[in-house]
Every structure is written in C-alpha cells, then in structure tokens.
Amino acid sequence: MTLIDAMTSIDAQRLLGRIRELGGIGRDGEGRLVRLAASDADRLGRDRFVGWLREAGLEIAIDRMGNIFGVWQAPANAGHAPILVGSHIDTVIDAGIYDGCYGVLAGLEVIETLKASALVPSRPLAVAAFTNEEGVRYSPDMMGSLVHAGGVGIDEALAAVGTDGSVLGEELARIGYAGDEEPGFLKPHVYLELHIEQGPVLEREGVPIGAVENLQGISWQRITIDGVANHAGTTPMSMRNDAGHAAARVVTFLHDRAKASNTPTVATVGTMRFEPNAINVIPSRAVFTVDLRDPFEHRLQAEEAALAAFLENLAADGGVAISVERLARFEPVIFDISIVELIEAAAKKRGYASKRMTSGAGHDAQMMARLAPAAMIFVPSAGGISHNPREHTADAELVAGANILLDIVAQLADQEVSGDG
Amino acid sequence: MTLIDAMTSIDAQRLLGRIRELGGIGRDGEGRLVRLAASDADRLGRDRFVGWLREAGLEIAIDRMGNIFGVWQAPANAGHAPILVGSHIDTVIDAGIYDGCYGVLAGLEVIETLKASALVPSRPLAVAAFTNEEGVRYSPDMMGSLVHAGGVGIDEALAAVGTDGSVLGEELARIGYAGDEEPGFLKPHVYLELHIEQGPVLEREGVPIGAVENLQGISWQRITIDGVANHAGTTPMSMRNDAGHAAARVVTFLHDRAKASNTPTVATVGTMRFEPNAINVIPSRAVFTVDLRDPFEHRLQAEEAALAAFLENLAADGGVAISVERLARFEPVIFDISIVELIEAAAKKRGYASKRMTSGAGHDAQMMARLAPAAMIFVPSAGGISHNPREHTADAELVAGANILLDIVAQLADQEVSGDG
C-alpha cells in the first residue's frame, strides 16, 4: 500500500487549534497581532512553533539567518534531499492569523500525519519558517528564503537596519534565534508552499484550490514630477506646469492600459504626495509610486518601457521634469509544471475544483524556486483581504488545502529516490 | 486748471522707500517677512503706517475691526463721501514686500501728492489698510473689508479663533488696534485698489497697466472618494475599486475641460491625500480639493454642475462612493466700467499700454464693491510669483501704477459733487 492510496487526512482540529493559538501570540496593547521579524513578539511565536516541532519529534535546525527547520529523517532515507514545505510566521502590523502561519503549520501537520502513519517516506520531510518574509521591519521582504537561496549574502542580511534603527543580526541574537547552521545548508528535493490567496479570484469563482503555476514579476518605481507652483486663480490654464495634473495623467494611463490589456498585468499607484499641497497653489511637485506586475518578464519589461515612453512624452508635453527611481524589481517565477499537475490531480481525487493561477503577491516559494522545483497551493481569501484582521479563510477550506498538501507530499515521498543521493 | 491737467507725479523715491521700509518690518529669526494679522509683527507694521499717516497730516480713524483709515478732509469738502484707496498690510508667512502694502502706500502717496499740490478736491480722500486680508491666521480672508461692507457681523469676526488658538478681538486689543469706530462708518464714493497682478499675464504680454474689469468667482470644494483597499498584486484590474485612480480621473477631467474651454475658467487640484498610502495597496480613499474660478457666475455654476455630473458617473462607473464638502464660495464681481475706462484713459495719456483683465485672486476690492463703485489697477508680477520672497515688480512699474492711481483719484476728485451729500 502506498501512502497515497491510504487517503489519510490531516488532524483538522490540531491544525486549526494551532493556527488560532499562534494567532493569539504577539498581540499588542490594542489587541492587534504584531509579530514583526526578530521582535520579542516574534520570539514568542517562534518559541511556540519550536515547541510544536519538538512535540512532533522532529529534529530542529536553525540557521544564522534565524530560519527554523523541523526535519523528520529516518535511517532509511537519511542523507537524501528532503521534501521541504515552508512559509513564514512573522507578520505585518495589525495582521490576520493566516498569512504565512497557515503554510508553516500545515507543513508541520502534514509531517506529523505522515509520521503517525508509520510508513517511511523515501526522503526526509522538512518544514521551514523563514525569517522576515513580510519585510515590514527590515528590507527586503522574503529575506530569509532569499538568503537561503543564495540571493543575498548572510552578512549583508544580518547588517540590515530596521525601521526602528535596530540591526537584524543583533535582534536575532537577542531573541535567541541566531542559529549555527549556514544558510542554504538544507538543499530540498522539492519545495512546496501552501498559502491563502490574498486575492479575490478563488472566492469569486467558487474554487477551493488554486494550483499556482507562476508568480508575477514585480517592478516598483518612485516617480517625482517637478512643475512650477503658481497661484491657482491668476495663472491661465495655458501657462501652467502642473505637477499634480501630470501625475494624474500617469495614474490614468497606467490603470487604463492595464485594464484594457486583456493580460494579467496589474498596475497600481498606491502612494501620492503633492507639494506644497495648498488648495490655491498649483502643485510644484508630485511624488508617487508605481507597482507593476506581470507573470511574464517580456511583458513586464514592455510595461516598464511603455511607462518610460509615456513619461518622456509627458515631460515634453506638460512642461514638467520627471525623475524615476527604481525601488524593487523581481523577475517572474515559473513554478514546476509536474508539481502543478500533482496539485490538480490531488484536488480532483478529493473532489475539489481547482484552478491554475498566478500568484500576484511575493512568497518565499519564489526564492526557493531558484534551488529546487517548487510550486504553491492557494486557498480562498474571503473578500480577497489580507494583511488585515479581517483576513479570513473558512475552516473547511483550510483543511482542504492541508489535505491536498498532504497528498502531494505523500506522493512525492513515495517516489523512488534516484540521482540526488 | 484742473488737477488732472497738471500731470503731476508722485514722489517715486518716497513711495519706493516706504515699500522697502515696511518690507523690512516684521522679519522673523530666519529673515522671513511674517506679519500675520494682529500679531506683534503686524503691530510694528501698523505703527509705522500710522506714523506716516500722521506725518502726512491725515486724520486717523481705526474701527473695531482694526481697519486703519487716513483721511484728508478740507472744510470745503467735509461731509462728502470720500474717494477711498485701500488694500492691506498683513502678510502671509515668508511673504514678498509688495502684496497689499504697495496699494496702501501708493494710496497714501497719492493723497500726499495731491495734498501738496494745494488744490482742494471736491471730496475727502482716504486711504485704508484692512485687517486680515490674507486669512492665514484667521478665517475667512478679506475679513476686514468684508466686515466693513457688512458681509459679516463685527462680533462674529472678532470671535474668530486663529490657527494658533488666539482670538482675533483679544489680539487686536492687545496690540492696540481695537479702535472705536463702528465698521462701515466710512461710506466711500468710489473705492480704488492698486495691486500687483500675482499672475503672469502682464509680464508675458509686456503690458505695464492692467485695468481690472472684474474679479473671478471662486468655488472651493473638498472631495472624498472611498473605494476598497486591496492587494496591488493579487487584485485583477477588473475587480478594483481604486479611489486613487478615480481621483486622478477627476484631476484630468477638470484640467482638460478648463484648458479646452476657450474661457478664462481655471481649475486646480492643489491638495491630494491617499489612504492607506502604501506602495502595494490599492488606495481605499483619496481626499483632494478643487479650486474653480470664473469671472461669470453662470459659467462658474456650469463648471460646478459639470463636476457634479462627472462625479455622479464616476461613482456609478468606478465602484466608488464620493462625498463633496463645500469649503468656500464667492460670486464673481463686476467692477465699475466707468472707472475701468478712466484707468485705460489715464494709461494712454501717460503713454503706457493697458489691458483689461480679470483678477484671478481675491482682494478687498471685491468686498468694497458691495458698497460703492470700485475697480482695481494691476502692475506686472515678475514670473507671476507672489506670496513668496521672490515676489517682484520693477521700480518703474510700481511708479507707473501709482501715477495712474494719482491721475484717477485726481480726476474723480475734480468732479462736481452731487447726490451723495
């Protein structure tokens, strides 16, 4: 009997109970969930997670980046590259309880379930909680998995200075999570991440399982437009160099272009500031950010080029000076098609509809995809809301997602090991 | 010989010297000119002005509003309604030296010049410095002339609470300028105001004298657009309720409509605020102000109606809720055509080009026009700049404007008195 034939299921009450218990740890004076990376609240959450790893009988490893790993290794599979399930347990300010934590605790749940089945997988199974995925206290986000994948050096990462002036390396040492392992010490055979969608698509379409086949590339820019401040009453329209109007033209250009594109391209201007910001003064300056995303690099580059061309014309046409600062840029990630197909098949077997989709948000999986075949499973987010106390996924949906993860891990762990030693 | 035939001229050095001297009074620690209404700095400016009135041999009257009047009255014209020239000597923060002060000091200069000519005008001549024209410390602006014209009661005005928590009536008493006269005690025969343009038109066209035939109506509104905050990466364009994009559509609508209108309509969005104002969050709220101006009430109303209709469609179309708050509304003012023609004729006689124009900014003249025939004379503002230390008008242009004012006052003072007692 293979593991997958057993159609075992995870312990729903244990998983849901842990999600709620972890969600109660790190509440501030106003009752808000705030477990910023390497903070005292983060330590409390980490301690609880490590306690559960220990109770589950997993080997615990912590690297210098503070990434936590729980590994189930049997003599029969020792030394083989593990199947790694992961996500993060740090949170934003005033967070919901699911983002990240769900994937980490479901990973633990899957390993415990398989461990209890007394069957020995062909590879070690491991769960990871990566440090500072949210990037609220320290930049960049997804830092722990980025360092694990070799995208940034450990010393550079540990030297990161937080919004509160703290240094990440010092804070990790202070809270007792500056581990001994070198980042990247664990080379996974595959990486899986189960996550809430953080978007409205699954709920809107009534589909419980998202088989995430790719992850959008992200381009963040800050644009500064300089015009001339002048009296709003005495300056004819033809003599204006209105930085605010020029900024508005960029906002509508980006929005209308993305909306009309018939592609998944999304364009957002989330921040905007006028100077001098007075009711009767034509704005001399407008500063705003542009967030462009697309699953395909060539299309993301085309969007960036279209914006640059528009800005060039705007500067010539509107009598304004425009400067652009690149804030962040991640190329799109294509996940492993064979794992995506496993997700679809597992959903079908359990009787759930599934949908191939693109991750609009960044996740640790995009970093881990540099190291190993990777994919993600999404479950619905009510109203598409996340990073908010109203973040919600129904219990049945959480359980369904964890069972799909279980099935896939079981199936992968049932495959004969070859090649990777 | 009539006064006008004499082609006398004002004392240029005296006028320019006083403008510069007054401009040096009320400098703060950083050297900025800051004579906010009823402040200690304002007292210093008032004291100097009253000193000059006294030196010129004028009768000084101060009303309960703190408006200062200098009156030259002869036995032959006593009791007749005076020809009043006025403006203000309070300033904005970090002001230039011309706005308001030029008109007041030129009024004094004209009276002194005519008084020295030993010819007795048919009416008293008076100069006024109105309290709190700028409206920086106390709201509304143009307060002193508004009260003088009966637009707001004196008790209500004196109860105004400043941005610093002070009460205007108490501050006027403290600086010694809570006078005894009832506001409106002086009923002018005509009101004249000489002022810098505060706009770019005269300089751009190379015309030294503006014959101001009307003053734009002003409509100020604050618009709040409520959409839905959502993840910038995971929310498809078709599922967005983007308050920032909706606001940008309003900005471009207003600007493009005014620019294409072939009328003097001006539309400005000077302030803008997004919430939550995060790079990767679709704005849930945008709050901005709209400043609409037009010289004709029917057209200003049409602009307001067009905006309202656009907002209604936008709310339906863009899935946003829109609320509008009226902040200020002044109807346009039509100045007295016979005085405007006098300005043109006087300019022509002195060899200056003149141009009929609209005042885009608010001035005390718009309040005084409720009481008496009124008009304004503009001189060029370099670069259209005002409310700024770079505010500048060339000496020759200042002198030219004052001589035109002289000619008009002389001509009006040469007319036989009839009707008004």
TrEMBL record, chains A, B:
<feature type="binding site">
    <location>
        <position position="88"/>
    </location>
    <ligand>
        <name>Zn(2+) 1</name>
    </ligand>
</feature>
<feature type="binding site">
    <location>
        <position position="134"/>
    </location>
    <ligand>
        <name>Zn(2+) 2</name>
    </ligand>
</feature>
<keyword id="KW-0862">Zinc</keyword>
<feature type="binding site">
    <location>
        <position position="99"/>
    </location>
    <ligand>
        <name>Zn(2+) 2</name>
    </ligand>
</feature>
<keyword id="KW-0378">Hydrolase</keyword>
<feature type="binding site">
    <location>
        <position position="99"/>
    </location>
    <ligand>
        <name>Zn(2+) 1</name>
    </ligand>
</feature>
<dbReference type="GO" id="GO:0016813">
    <property type="term" value="F:hydrolase activity, acting on carbon-nitrogen (but not peptide) bonds, in linear amidines"/>
</dbReference>
<feature type="domain" description="Peptidase M20 dimerisation">
    <location>
        <begin position="216"/>
        <end position="317"/>
    </location>
</feature>
<keyword id="KW-0479">Metal-binding</keyword>
<dbReference type="InterPro" id="IPR036264">
    <property type="entry name" value="Bact_exopeptidase_dim_dom"/>
</dbReference>
<dbReference type="Pfam" id="PF01546">
    <property type="entry name" value="Peptidase_M20"/>
</dbReference>
<dbReference type="InterPro" id="IPR002933">
    <property type="entry name" value="Peptidase_M20"/>
</dbReference>
<dbReference type="GO" id="GO:0046872">
    <property type="term" value="F:metal ion binding"/>
</dbReference>
<dbReference type="InterPro" id="IPR010158">
    <property type="entry name" value="Amidase_Cbmase"/>
</dbReference>
<dbReference type="Pfam" id="PF07687">
    <property type="entry name" value="M20_dimer"/>
</dbReference>
<dbReference type="InterPro" id="IPR011650">
    <property type="entry name" value="Peptidase_M20_dimer"/>
</dbReference>
<feature type="binding site">
    <location>
        <position position="195"/>
    </location>
    <ligand>
        <name>Zn(2+) 1</name>
    </ligand>
</feature>
<feature type="binding site">
    <location>
        <position position="387"/>
    </location>
    <ligand>
        <name>Zn(2+) 2</name>
    </ligand>
</feature>
<protein>
    <submittedName>
        <fullName>Amidase, hydantoinase/carbamoylase family</fullName>
    </submittedName>
</protein>
<comment type="similarity">
    <text>Belongs to the peptidase M20 family.</text>
</comment>
<dbReference type="InterPro" id="IPR001261">
    <property type="entry name" value="ArgE/DapE_CS"/>
</dbReference>
